[in-house]
Amino acid sequence: MRAAGGVCIADEVQTGFGRTGTHFWGFETQDVIPDIVTMAKGIGNGAPLAAVVTTPKIAQSLLGKVHFNTFGGNPVVSAIGKAVLEVIEKENLQANALKLGNHILAGLNKLKEKYKIIGDVRGKGLMLGIEMVKDRATKAPASAECAQVVENARELGLLLGKGGLWGQTIRFAPPMCITQADADFLLEVLDESFAAL
């Protein structure tokens, strides 16, 4: 790819800052060194902050070009980003993402054994997904059922997202400061939400 002039871009908007538990950056789990890394969300903890890191060669290509952004160079938001990074380190949130992510993943695997509509569970740290299927052999997507589980969970106080090509996958990335009680609540609500189908 690089020999033909291509570049590798790692989108770390959701996976960055230790969320995968084992690595600070998601791309590190793939044994690759990207040419460009984009990051946001986790770095600002809700504040409008994003960043791009690249190689000197690519950065050089931007010299003399007009570049504009709405929040660029904001000192208050930059201070927020620095504080967020300090809290991630001080409170060992990457280790928390690994510990509680593994706990949740183990719980999701138990739910998979209990409910045949769960075709797959997967994740790294606190980036998790539950793929729902009508039949595990054909892997036909269970889109309507997925929407219903998400709605059931919402009624019980748990907000989840869904994705996948057919809207068949429940996706969630709990805050890195999640507690054991939060993780257990999440699993209890999911159990009740699947049982109600």
Secondary-structure arrangement, i.e. CATH architecture of the largest domain? Alpha-Beta Complex
Strand arrangement within the widest β-sheet reads 4-5-7-6
Gyration radius from CA atoms, angstroms: 19 Å
- Work out the strand percent: 15-25%
Q: Domains counted in the coordinates: how many?
A: 2
The global form is globular
Q: Give the rounded overall mean pLDDT.
A: 94
Order of helices and strands: EEEHHHEEHEEH
Could you say which structural class the secondary elements and strand pairing correspond to?
alpha+beta
Poorly predicted runs of 5 or more residues: none
CATH level 1 class label of the largest domain: Alpha Beta
Helix content: 25-40%
N- to C-terminal separation? 46 Å
Number of strands: 7
Number of helices: 5
How would you name the CATH homologous superfamily of the largest domain? Aspartate Aminotransferase, domain 1
The largest pleated sheet is described as: 4 strands, antiparallel
The CATH topology of the largest domain is given as Aspartate Aminotransferase, domain 1
What does this 3D model show about the protein?
- The protein is α+β, with helices and mostly antiparallel strands.
- The chain has two domains: 2-90, Type I PLP-dependent aspartate aminotransferase-like (Major domain) (Aspartate Aminotransferase, domain 2); 93-195, Aspartate Aminotransferase, domain 1, CATH 3.90.1150.10.
- Helix content is 37%, strand content 16%.
- The protein has helices at residues 56-60, 75-90, 93-114, 143-155, 180-195, and strands spanning 9-11, 36-39, 51-54, 118-124, 127-132, 161-163, 169-172.
- A four-stranded antiparallel beta sheet has the order 4-5-7-6.
- A hairpin with a 5-residue loop joins strand 6 and strand 7 (169-172).
